[in-house]
C-alpha cells in the first residue's frame, strides 16, 4: 500500500513499521513494534490504547521524528519523516510538564515560539490566546513551581497549542493528574478541538478518557505491538459530560476492556519472574 500524497485527507500515515531496540540476539533486545500500518485523517482525534510496553510512545516518537524506525516509513502531510522532525507540522505534549522552572510561564511560551521560528511580534499574542483557552491567562507571569500539578499540565497543553501546528502528539498528558482534574481537562480539550480542527494522536491508559475524547480508538496488542482493532466513536466534538451517561459510552468502554484484557494478562505474565523448578 503506497503512502497517501500531500493532497489527500490523510495527516499521518505509517506503513509496515517495525521497531527493534538493541542488537538481535542480545539479552536486552526488544521487538517493540511489529509491522504496524495505519492512517490518521486530518482533523481526527485518535487514541492509542494498549498495555504498558506495547509501543505507544514509540509510535509517537517515530511520527514526531525523534528517531527512525528499524524498518517501514512514517509520512506526515505527505512528507516522509525518517528521523527528521517536522516542526511546522507537529507539536508534542508529554506526561511530565516540560516547562523550564527558571522561566515564567510566558517566557516558556516565548522560547517554544522562538524555537519554531515564529515572528517575535506574534509571541505574546499567541501565548495569551492559548493561555486564555485553558483558563490560565492570569498566571502568565508565574513560575512553574508556583502552580499546582493540574495548572502546570494545563499550561503545558496550552504551550502545545500556541505553536499552532496542525498535528499534536500527546503522550499520557493527564496521567499525573487526579481523576476529577483529568475529566475537566478532557472536556476542555474537546472544546478546544471543536474550534481548531487539529489532528491529535493521544496516548492514554484510561478507557473512559479514550472513549470520551476519540473519533477512533486504536487498540493495540501486547508487545510486540500491532493494531488489534479500531473502534469508531461516532459523537461530534465538543463533547458534553452527558455523553458519559449514555449506555453507548459504557458499551464502548466495555468493548475496549474486553479487547485489552487478554493483552494485559499476556503483558503481566511476561513480566513475572520465571517460577523455580518444583514450585
Ligand atoms: N530507547 C529504548 N531503548 C531500548 N528499549 C526501548 C527504548 N524505548 C522503548 N523501549 C522498549 O520498547 C518497548 C515499547 O516501549 P514504549 O515506551 O513505546 O511502550 P508504551 O506502550 O509507551 O508503554 P507505557 O504504556 O508503559 O508508556 C518497551 O519494551 C520498552 O522497554
Ligand atoms: Mg509510553
**What value does the average pLDDT take?**
90
Largest sheet, in brief, is: 6 strands, mixed
Question: Are there runs of 5+ residues with pLDDT below 50, and where?
Answer: none
Strand order of the largest sheet: 6-7-8-3-9-10
Element string (H = helix, E = strand): EEEHEEEHHHEHEHEEH
Q: Given the C-alpha coordinates, what overall shape results?
A: globular
Structural class, please?
A: alpha/beta
Task: Give me the count of strands.
Answer: 10
Helical amount: 25-40%
Radius of gyration: 19 Å
Percentage beta strand: 15-25%
Query: Which ligands appear in the coordinates?
Result: adenosine-5'-triphosphate, magnesium ion
End-to-end distance, in Å? 50 Å
* Distinct helical segment count: 7
Q: How would you explain this protein's 3D organization?
A:
The strands form 2 sheets. Strands 6-7-8-3-9-10 form a 6-stranded mixed β-sheet, sandwiched between helices. Strands 2-1-4-5 form a 4-stranded antiparallel β-sheet, covered by helices on one side. With 279 residues, the protein is α/β, with parallel strands linked by helices. The protein has helices spanning 56-63, 105-115, 123-133, 149-162, 179-196, 207-213, 247-271, and strands at 10-21, 30-41, 45-49, 71-76, 79-80, 90-93, 167-171, 199-203, 216-220, 227-232. The termini are far apart. Strand 4 (71-76) and strand 5 form a beta hairpin. The chain contains 7 helices and 10 strands. The model has no long low-confidence stretch (mean pLDDT 90). Helix 3 packs across helix 4 (149-162) and helix 6 (207-213) crosses helix 7. Magnesium ion (MG) is lined by residues 56-57, 171.
Amino acid at each position: 500500500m503506497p503512502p497517501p500524497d500531500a493532497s489527500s485527507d490523510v495527516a499521518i500515515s505509517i506503513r509496515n513499521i517495525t521497531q527493534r531496540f538493541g542488537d538481535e540476539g542480545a539479552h536486552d533486545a526488544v521487538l517493540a513494534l511489529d509491522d504496524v500500518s495505519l492512517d490518521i485523517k486530518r482533523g481526527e482525534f485518535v487514541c492509542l490504547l494498549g498495555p504498558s510496553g506495547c509501543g505507544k510512545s514509540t509510535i509517537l516518537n517515530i511520527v514526531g521524528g525523534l528517531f527512525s524506525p528499524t524498518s517501514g516509513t512514517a509520512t506526515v502531510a505527505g512528507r516522509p519523516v525518517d528521523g527528521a522532525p517536522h516542526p511546522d507540522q507537529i507539536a508534542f505534549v508529554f506526561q511530565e510538564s516540560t516547562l523550564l522552572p527558571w522561566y515564567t510561564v510566558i517566557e516558556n511560551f516565548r522560547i517554544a515560539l522562538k524555537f519554531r521560528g515564529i515572528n517575535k511580534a506574534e509571541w505574546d499574542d499567541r501565548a495569551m490566546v492559548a493561555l486564555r483557552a485553558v483558563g490560565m491567562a492570569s498566571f502568565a507571569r508565574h513560575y512553574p513551581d508556583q502552580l499546582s500539578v493540574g495548572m502546570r499540565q494545563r499550561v503545558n497543553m496550552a504551550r502545545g497549542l500556541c505553536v499552532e501546528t496542525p498535528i499534536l502528539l500527546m503522550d499520557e498528558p493527564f496521567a499525573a493528574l487526579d481523576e476529577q482534574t483529568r475529566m475537566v481537562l478532557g472536556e476542555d480539550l474537546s472544546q478546544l478541538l471543536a474550534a481548531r480542527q487539529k489532528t491529535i494522536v493521544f496516548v492514554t491508559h484510561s478507557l473512559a478518557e479514550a472513549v470520551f475524547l476519540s473519533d477512533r480508538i486504536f487498540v493495540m496488542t501486547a508487545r510486540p505491538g500491532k493494531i488489534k482493532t479500531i473502534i469508531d466513536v461516532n459523537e461530534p466534538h465538543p463533547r458534553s459530560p452527558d455523553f458519559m451517561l449514555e449506555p453507548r459510552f459504557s458499551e464502548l468502554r466495555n468493548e475496549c476492556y474486553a479487547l485489552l484484557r487478554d493483552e494485559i494478562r499476556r503483558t503481566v505474565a511476561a513480566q513475572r519472574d520465571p517460577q523455580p523448578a518444583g514450585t
